[in-house]
Specification:
Jelly Rolls; Man6P_isomerase_Firm_short; Mannose-6-phosphate isomerase; 298 residues; mainly beta; 2 domains; single chain; isomerase; Carb_Metab_Reg_Kinase/Isom; seven-stranded antiparallel β-sheet
């Protein structure tokens, strides 16, 4: 068992609400709760999660040279996030040298102000997206997908989407941390620079026929997707991981004492395969377990 330290990342759309989840700045847009990739690597004591995994991957249920395949974070948006898409498995393998692409799921702690996010193409073709890029207006090209607090929204790789202002979410994604931006509202940073767009790659990997999967995700619910399984549970007395691969238990609310360490909202505990850990206190948590499906498609 490892208790992971959070990593804060400021964003142009960041929000002070993330201070309740370990953020270090009023402009933090993402608090990484569990990550083990180059550049975003959860601290563990005097080392990092990536370092531990690289030393003994099999102890985590991984094969040699495999990275831990999921990233867990908390995101809060004071303004709309960029219109974007993530690579599919095939595109990531062919163009980015990665073993898999990037799907993701959002659990809404607080719904966006508008009551919806952008997700899915209105038309099942890329033409309307190309027109939207030219016009710098995606209102007619993307669906306004309704969401509310405690909804879970799964976005397959290759789906155009955009988190809208006011949303506060728990996010889980595959660890191919690649985003292709289609549009960023011509915003500039504090130095007056616009963020880069990646239109060619975005259009190449986009699947305009993709559909979102939405479900209510109250405590006691489970959700299974091709890259990971999720369980929303009120934890007390103990936390168990019955899987053959390390799983991530992330605190949404409440506080628990684990191995004499206080674990508060925003923090994750990495449970080793088949491990059970005793806890004091109670907390509302999401347990995320990776599915190493990519081993079957290589």
């Amino acid at each position: 068992m490892y208790i992971l330290k959070t990593i804060s990342m400021d964003k142009i759309w960041g929000d002070e609400r993330l201070k309740a989840y370990g953020a270090t700045s009023a402009h933090t847009g993402i608090v990484y709760s569990c990550a083990a990739i180059e550049g975003i690597d959860s601290p563990v004591g005097q080392t990092t999660l990536r370092t531990l995994i690289q030393k003994t991957p099999t102890a985590f249920g991984l094969l040699p040279k495999e990275e831990y395949p999921i990233i867990v974070s908390f995101d809060a948006a004071k303004m709309d996030v960029s219109v974007q898409v993530h690579p599919t498995d095939r595109f990531a393998q062919d163009q980015e040298g990665k073993p898999y692409g990037k799907c993701e799921a959002w659990y809404f702690i607080e719904a966006p102000k508008k009551g919806w996010v952008y997700a899915e193409n209105v038309e099942e073709s890329k033409d309307s997206i190309k027109e939207a890029i030219a016009k710098k207006d995606f209102h007619q090209a993307l669906k306004k997908y309704p969401v509310k607090s405690e909804d879970l929204l799964f976005t397959p790789a290759g789906t155009v989407h955009c988190l809208t202002s006011g949303a506060l979410i728990y996010e889980i994604q595959q660890s191919t941390n690649i985003t292709y931006r289609l549009y960023d509202y011509d915003r500039t940073d504090e130095k007056g620079n616009k963020r880069a767009l990646h239109v060619e790659k975005a259009l190449a990997t986009m699947n305009p026929m993709n559909k979102e999967i939405k479900q209510t995700f109250h405590a006691g619910r489970r959700a299974s997707f091709y890259a990971f399984d999720l369980m929303h549970k009120h934890m007390q007395d103990h936390i168990s991981n019955p899987s053959d691969i390390a799983a991530v238990c992330t605190v949404l609310s409440g506080r628990i004492l684990v191995d004499n360490t206080l674990v508060e909202p925003g923090t994750s505990i990495l449970l080793m395969p088949k491990e059970t850990v005793s806890i004091d206190g109670q907390a509302d948590c999401i347990m995320a377990t990776p599915n190493p499906y990519w081993r079957e498609i290589e």
